[in-house]
Structure formats: C-alpha cells, structure tokens
Amino acid sequence: MEDSEFLAYVELLDEVEQGSVREKASSVSLNAERTRKEKMKVEDLNACEPASPAPEAPTTSLLNDLKYSPSEEEEVTYTVINQFQQKFGAAILHIKKQNVLSVAAEGANVCRHGKLCWLQVATNCRVYLFDIFLLGSRAFNNGLQMILEDKRILKVIHDCRWLSDCLSHQYGILLNNVFDTQVADVLQFSMETGGYLPNCITTLQESLIKHLKVAPKYLSFLEKRQKLIQENPEVWFIRPVSPSLLKILALEATYLLPLRLALLDEMMSDLTTLVDGYLNTYREGSADRLGGTE
C-alpha cells in the first residue's frame, strides 16, 4: 500500500469508531477516578486537555541533548496519539522510514494476562505516545503491527520479555529485530569479567547511570513513576492524563536510543583495541621487512 493510500485509509475511519473510543474512556473504574481526584493537583487538571496535541518535536536530534546535557530532560517534546484522525497516519509514516527506534510500554501488569495502556515510540527526532487504552487493537492493525514485526527496523527496548508476551498473546504480534539494553548490559558485564554473569539484571535507571553516566537526580522521573504505580496500580488508565505522566512516558523511550549507542561502544572496545594494534603492525615496525617497489 502506498504511503498516500495508507494515510487516506487511516483518515477515513468514521466517527462511530471515535464515539466508541470516547465511551471506552468514560468507563474507567470509579476507584481509579476517585484516586485521580485525590492525587492530582488542581493545576494539573486545569492544564491538561486530552484532545489537545502536544507540541511537535523539533527536527533536531533529541538524543544529543539528553546524552550530553541531561538537564535538558525538562524540554522533552512528544506527540500524544489518542485518535485515528489527524496525527495517527502521519506518525506511522514517519516511523516506517526509520532504521532504528526505541519502544517502551506501560499498563497494568503488561503481559498476556495484563492490560497494555501506552506504547511509546521514539525516533531520532520525534517521540510518539500511542494511547492503546483508547485506540484499541486497531492501532496495531493500522500500522503498529507492521512496524513491530518489520525485520528491517531495529527496536531498542529495555527488558523486552513482558511486552513480547503481551503483544503475542493479546494481539497476535511477533516482536522482531530487537536490541535489548538489559541483555546488552549482561553481555558487557560478561565480557569485562571473563565470562562471569551478574548477580542480578539491571533496571533502566541503573543502566542509564552506569553506561550513560547520567546523574541520578536527572532520573527522578523513574522513581516518581514507581511511586505512582505503588500508590495507584491503575494510574495508566486515568484520563485525562497529567502532563507530568506524559513526560514520564516520553522520557522512558527517549533515553533508550543513546543507551544503545553507549552499550555498543563498550562492547566494541576490545575490537577497537585489537584494530589499533593492527594499525601499528607495519607503520611502527622496521622498513626492511616491507620490501620495496623495485
């Protein structure tokens, strides 16, 4: 299907479907709604408009800002995709053109028995937050499944096991071509220690501190995420979503791309050392052994 045809197809989804989506949103449990009223600040409620698009990310790379100046995390930009009209088709077209992207997910016990609420996708210059709770399985049928299963697009994920299980058993999606930063950390540890394995696998926060040298104070969003989940396991079902929660979703995905590059550099260090020695084999040796042109 041509890009223009695909975009037109997505835009033609009728208003009946959108009405069912809105009805689904209104059926969030009373417990979650009551918790929202107790926990969210008045200013967050006033500032959050569920249908208003977040500002489009700039065309310059978001990753360099986060890698070299972690304080820029406050400036992360994202696009919320919570309906099929307007933004969904354009987002899929942009993502399809990428060779590498990062993927994160949030929900209630994300696995075959749980509920997927958010799928975050970050490219080198954009961050998209797909509201799976509102969009439903049609989000996958209309492009996300094709991307997640595409063997040409590398997906960077931290601990892919739970999302892979969820996608396979609930949506019939076989996640393909994944660079798992948690697995890469284990491999790097094994290479450094001569074949030993770590006592435990690393969290995303631990990996960012270890490999990207990010100061813990800039990763407070991960601690806040954990606290919110402990206080209310249904936090990802709440609509409208506060800006602070949306920023957590965006940052989870954005940091994965520079983390992959850092891990690759570390894993390639032994090869780089060998190549450096190879470079000097002749140029720093005796000229007699090289012969001449005559």
Automatic annotation (TrEMBL):
Main localization, broad class: cytoplasm
GO biological process, one term: piRNA processing
Region (Disordered): 41-62
Residue stretches making up the 3'-5' exonuclease domain: 79-268
Alphabetized PANTHER family for the sequence: PIRNA BIOGENESIS PROTEIN EXD1
The protein's assembly and partners: Homodimer. Component of the PET complex, at least composed of EXD1, PIWIL2, TDRD12 and piRNAs.
Family (UniProt): Belongs to the EXD1 family.
Purpose: RNA-binding component of the PET complex, a multiprotein complex required for the processing of piRNAs during spermatogenesis. The piRNA metabolic process mediates the repression of transposable elements during meiosis by forming complexes composed of piRNAs and Piwi proteins and governs the methylation and subsequent repression of transposable elements, preventing their mobilization, which is essential for the germline integrity. The PET complex is required during the secondary piRNAs metabolic process for the PIWIL2 slicing-triggered loading of PIWIL4 piRNAs.
Record protein name field: piRNA biogenesis protein EXD1
Protein encoded by which gene: EXD1
